[in-house]
Amino acid sequence: MIIGILGGSFNPVHLGHLIAAEEVLKKTDCEKIWLMPCYIHALKPKELAAPIEYRMKLLKFVEKNFENIEVSDFEIKKNQGVSEKTYTIDTVKALKQIYPQHTFKWIIGSKLLDELDKWKNIEELVKQIQFIVVPMSGDKKEKLLKHKWVKKNNAVVIDASIVTNISSSEVRKRSKEKQGIEVLVPEKVREYIESKKLYE
Question: Where are the beta strands (DSSP E) in 38-89?
């Protein structure tokens, strides 16, 4: 099976994540998407993240509504008792070792393209797994195909029907300021965030 991995802090999960996952399922050969949260984002160690059990619960709310989108605790279990910080290269190597029957692809939003050279062992990583780039607001497929990183590393850029610029930081900011987040996250996620006052 070909599985697309959408990783990140999911602090919290929002509609942009789900739109990206659905677009990849429609536009590529990926048969399933795994949403894979980490304890601490390697490039955002100072970001105040909600406890992982809350973030997982929010992801589980949305998983129920999709046939081919699943939540994976792989990175959490892999790092438990070892290190809270997560590196994609280590995750990919472990996935390929444990699930040799599957082919994995790594999904990113186009805004991450200029950060990839900061990732741990990125030159080795691109030899291990193909990247799928999802255009975000303001980015066109034609422009992204000319990006030096995309061209150099044979990344796939999808032609998304829906593009969005929703971010977890925007959800947290609006939640803290007690502004509405109903247009940014699924209803069950909104209810839980507000009931637990996760980001206030």
Answer: 40-41, 69-71, 85-86
